[in-house]
């Protein structure tokens, strides 16, 4: 297999079937010295964190498959640390779903979010351009369309999928006594008008609370898989 | 008359009829040392700049009135440097209409705007929260609604008014051999569901080119009023 890319948290290979094979690294992202799934820098390494991310991702991708939500997932071996996925054209966006008001959303609009910390936002979707250097700038619907990043059908589908996933993850976490605050998804285009979830769904891409305290990636694995 | 507010470019008084009276100052806004209507700092003072802004604002508000577009404008005396306007609740937003791709829009999404400088964007509307400290952060439609800043009817109306104004100003400037690049509007709420344009429409709130070179406020007055 040929390595074709190395990102902050994954190595990507191409296999003989023409599918991608993702190896999950132990690097964790954050801001400054703090671990924060929303952060853009690598701030350290946690042993077996890659395996945890992969196990949780497999857990959720299996669940979404069952519910008919399209993802790039084909197969995964958490023991061997890899996931096989369908190739597609990444849109270059991060789609954030804010289930409850927290973090950068409160900091960005302090005047309009007073006393709204942890208020349910009914699955508010924000789209950002994946661009570490510029801190993943927000982009609105009109700009997405006018710049030809998505057509209307794809944009509607992307938002609808995101909200459906939000409800599925929220219900699942609630069942385990956990609280979903926000998460991000990435999307790719399979063909014009048809988009699917790519990348991962793990503690690395979501903020989960238990009794108002952050649940770590490792704790999340315990709650979901043990 | 009682002064009730002093902003970067205006002083605001309340008159005996319960209307606001705006005095236009000679301060110009910019970024760093450059004059830039999109900038948030006061970078200097230009003699009679206040009068120029007011004259252009009156020119456009009169034109919008004729076309049935609602603004706070009641009357103005460019000679005495003031404008009388209707009181209303400011939404605290800046609505930017990008007629052609330029400036911060290109810088914000470099990957998706290559070779698109000055491409017509068909009156793309972006809404930001008026917040100098945070550089007027962009806000998307869902967040505007979920945070209760606007209802759906007001949001649609705000965008529709903005696009109408864009076409009116663009046509007017084209007639004078000028090119409208982008501009900003502010809005206020008169009553639930009914919003109107407030503040000003002048060289201070729009970027105008002639033969690919920036037209100054003073030049704009010459082109429009002489």
Description:
2 copies of one chain form a homodimer. Helices cover 27% and strands 37% of the residues of chain A. With 226 residues, chain A is an alpha+beta fold. The two termini of chain A are 33 Å apart. In chain A, the strands form 3 sheets. In chain A, strands 9, 10, 11, 12, 13, 14, 15 and 16 form an 8-stranded antiparallel beta sheet that branches. A 5-stranded antiparallel beta sheet of chain A has the order 1-2-3-8-7, covered by helices on one side. A 3-stranded antiparallel beta sheet of chain A has the order 5-4-6, with no helix packed on it. Chain A has 2 domains: 2-85, Phosphorylase Kinase, domain 1, CATH 3.30.200.20; 89-216, ATP-grasp fold, B domain (D-amino Acid Aminotransferase, Chain A, domain 1, 2-Layer Sandwich), CATH 3.30.470.20. Chain A has 5 helices and 16 strands.
Secondary structure topology:
Two copies of one chain form a homodimer.
Chain A: E1 2-6, E2 10-14, E3 20-24, E4 27-31, E5 34-35, E6 41-45, H1 49-66, E7 73-77, E8 82-85, E9 89-90, E10 93-100, H2 104-108, E11 120-129, E12 138-139, H3 141-146, H4 152-175, E13 179-191, E14 194-198, E15 206-210, E16 213-214, H5 217-225
Antiparallel strand pairs in A: 1-2, 2-3, 3-8, 4-5, 4-6, 7-8, 9-13, 10-11, 10-13, 11-12, 13-14, 13-15, 15-16
Pick out its properties:
phosphoribosylaminoimidazolesuccinocarboxamide synthase activity (chains A, B); 226 residues; D-amino Acid Aminotransferase, Chain A, domain 1; SAICAR_synthetase_CS (chains A, B); 5 helices; ATP binding (chains A, B); five-stranded antiparallel sheet; eight-stranded antiparallel sheet; homodimer; 16 strands; alpha+beta
């Amino acid at each position: 297999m040929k390595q074709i890319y190395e990102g902050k948290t994954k190595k990507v290979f191409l296999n003989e079937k023409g599918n991608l094979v993702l190896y999950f690294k132990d690097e964790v992202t954050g801001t400054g010295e703090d671990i924060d799934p929303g952060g853009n820098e690598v701030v350290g390494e946690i042993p077996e964190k890659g395996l945890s991310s992969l196990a949780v991702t497999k857990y959720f991708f299996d669940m979404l498959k069952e519910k008919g939500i399209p993802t790039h997932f084909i197969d995964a071996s958490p023991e061997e640390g890899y996931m096989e996925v369908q190739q597609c054209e990444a849109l270059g966006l991060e789609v954030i779903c804010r289930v409850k008001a927290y973090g950068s959303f409160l900091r960005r609009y302090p005047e309009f979010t007073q006393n709204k910390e942890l208020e349910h936002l009914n699955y508010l979707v924000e789209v950002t351009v994946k661009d570490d250097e510029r801190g993943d700038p927000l982009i609105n619907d009109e700009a997405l369309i006018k710049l030809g990043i998505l057509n209307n059908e794809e944009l509607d589908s992307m938002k609808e999928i995101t909200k459906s996933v939000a409800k599925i993850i929220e219900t699942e976490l609630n069942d385990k006594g956990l609280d979903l605050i926000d998460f991000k998804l990435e999307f790719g285009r399979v063909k014009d008008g048809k988009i699917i979830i790519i990348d991962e769904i793990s503690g690395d891409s979501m903020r989960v609370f238990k009794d108002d305290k952050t649940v770590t990636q490792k704790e999340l694995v315990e709650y979901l898989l043990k």
